[in-house]
Amino acid sequence: MLRSIVSDAWGVSVNDGVFSPRPVRVAVAAHGETAAAALAALIMRSSAVELVGYASTYGELHPLVTSCLPEVVLIDSGLACAHPEIGLGEYAGAVLMILSAGHWPPAQLTLKTTGLASIWDSPAELTEAIRHVRSGIEWVSPNVLTRSERQRVGVSSRESEVLVLIADGNSLTEIAKRLWITERTVKYHVASLKRKLSARDRAHLVALSFQAGLLHVNCPERQCLAPIRSVRSPRASASSGADVILEGT
User: Where is the HTH luxR-type domain (predicted)?
Assistant: First the structure.
């Protein structure tokens, strides 16, 4: 009896007097079979999580929760955007929403969530979020905060990319090549960023961006930008000295 109480209250299992974390029972729901299977495969990489099943449509979600009784339901924001009326009936467990690209939770969403994770989160970060919300602790991923702060300040996705490249020490010319835009356009984005954050120069802009939460060490936008390098083109004549920009090499 005592063993059962300890296990339920603390989220641990007791075997021969040894306490160990009990895997969190999780159900996954996403918009479409491919997305649901991918999200399920992601959380199965952690031994701290036990996948009880996944749903690829709104119609499959409620029966899954009712029959499997998960401790945490992980819902992709794409499903929430497609069905803002989504609900889980009498389910009393935690709901963790994972924000996928281009799917911010709609304002009319009726589902109560305990936490917000991000598609940019690593498996370890996602596991940490799951364990927190299972314990009743509200959770917001740092990657979500970055986007939230960006929206609050009014920084566009392109401006965010420029900001990351400035923080990485790229010149205006290098940024233009990296994003396949003109240097004049880069200057326009930099001027817009400086105006929005009241920055004196680019160094001040980067400092203010970190303070405002627009940038952090593992900024998601950095992962979207392929590395770039200049190499001598084998087709260019020896006298021309032309360089070719190779993306992702």
Answer: 148-213
